[in-house]
Each structure stands twice: as C-alpha cells, then as structure tokens.
Amino acid sequence: AQTVTQSQPEMSVQEAETVTLSCTYDTSESNYYLFWYKQPPSRQMILVIRQEAYKQQNATENRFSVNFQKAAKSFSLKISDSQLGDTAMYFCAFMKHAGSGGSNYKLTFGKGTLLTVNP
Amino acid sequence: NAGVMQNPRHLVRRRGQEARLRCSPMKGHSHVYWYRQLPEEGLKFMVYLQKENIIDESGMPKERFSAEFPKEGPSILRIQQVVRGDSAAYFCASSPKQGFGYTFGSGTRLTVV
Questions:
Q1: For residue A101, what pLDDT is reported?
Q2: I need a labelling partner for A81 at 20 to 30 A (CA). Which of A105, A112, B48, B50 fits?
Q3: What is the DSSP letter of B10?
Q4: Residues A51-78 pLDDT 10s
Q5: What is the pLDDT of residues B66-80, one digit of tens each?
Q6: What pLDDT band is residue A100 in, cutting at 50, 70 and 90?
C-alpha cells in the first residue's frame, strides 16, 4: 500500500515571497503519478500540478513548480510570488500508473498543509 | 460545460436517519469516484463506479453504506442509519477514462446531530 506524508500541518508566507511545501511518499511501484491539490475555503478540490514519475523533468505551472526526487521519494511544491488567493489547504497525492495494473485509479492523499499568505 | 455537480452542498441528519448524496459527473465522463474527508484529514477513497457497475468498493464501510451509478441519472451515495462518526465532507470526482483526468465536485458536508 502507498502512503503519503506531509510533515508541515501549517505554514505562512508573506505576499510576494516564495514558499515550499514538503511531501514524502512510500511505494514499491516504479511508475506512478504525483499531484498537488489546492482546497480553498470553498472546499473545491483544484488540481495545481501533476508529475509523472518516469519524467525526470520537474513539472511547472506558472508560479507553481515541483522538486521531484524519485530516489528520495520526495515531491515538494514551490509557490513563487505568493498571492493572497493562494491561501488554502494543499494536499499531496499519489496514484499508480495506468500500466501498473491493480487500483490505478485510486488517489492516496496526505493530511494536508494549511498555507496562509499574509498581506 | 458544467463541472461535477454535487448536491446538496450541506446536509443535516439526525442519528438514525438516511442520507442520500448525489453526484452528476461531467459530460462525457463515465467513471465516478467517491471520497470522504474527515476533519483535519486528507480525502480517503471509498468507491469507484462505472455506469451500472461497482468496480471497487474496498474503501466503503461494510455496513450502512452503498453506492450506485444508474444508466440514467446521477450517482448516489447512500448512508443508512447515520451516526455522529459519519459527519464528514463527501467528495465525488469523475473522469473520461479510468484514473485519468479527474475532476472533483465541491463536496457535500454531512452533519449528523
């Protein structure tokens, strides 16, 4: 079974600064997907960024980028130029690759990090 | 193109009543997943359905919980004889292919009093 650990329950950052959220995971799979989801107070789950394990290049989406260290099983999220609208819970999640067989449709989530962006 | 629609957004039930949560997937999506979020926890998988079929219900409690996704209409998550421990946010997601292109709804917050 896979596990996802987010060791920072809460973090805060000043507007316009950079913040990094940590995530580690445990799996015996060699190919899989990793995700960061944002959950603002509206409760909507919003996909922030997605990484395929077989791709060495780190994924980026505008101000959001990841540092994917496969050997260390680490997947951190960096938010640059933080904005007030980035205030939310952030969840790291794991899914087996489609070619892995088994439950390759099930997301396994960490417990989340509450990020507050201060003006 | 409307997203995944869940209703109601909030649901209050007394202990022992039944709760019915509805999820209409995105147009063109035939795969539906239900997740439960307990307070201060991440989402946990409950069940995966395709039209008229339950594919994986390994995350569903063995008693009182059931799910369906009929040929016509929304997917329904039913909780019978609710207890206080059922209080949580229940999220539905849909995808066009198995495990690919998930889109989540805004969830239903169930409160059992």
A1: 67
A2: A112
A3: E
A4: 999 888 999 999 999 999 999 999 999 9
A5: 999 999 999 999 999
A6: low
Q: How many CA atoms lie within 13 A of A100 on its CB side?
A: 20
A43: closest CA of chain B, how far (Å):
6
- For residue B26, CA distances in Å to A105, B35, B95, B103 come to 17, 17, 8, 8
Whether B39 contacts chain A with CB within 8 A: no
| Overall average pLDDT of the B29-57 stretch | 94
Rg of chain B in Å (alpha carbons)? 13
Q: CA distances (Å), A25 to each of A22, A56, A102, B8, B110, in order?
A: 10, 17, 19, 34, 30
- For residue A18, give how far its alpha carbon lies from the nearest alpha carbon of chain B (Å): 24
Q: Tell me the three state secondary structure of residue A44.
A: coil
Report the candidate in B2, B33, B95 with the shortest Cα–Cα distance to residue A106: B33
A/B interface, count of CB pairs below 8 Å: 57
Mutation pick from A2, A21, A34, A43 vs chain B, by most beta carbons of B within 10 Å, is: A43
By residue count, chain A amounts to 119
**Residue A95 contacts B where some CB pair is shorter than 8 Å:** yes
B42–A43 CB contact, under 8 Å: no
Q: Are A94 and A107 in contact (CB under 8 A)?
A: yes
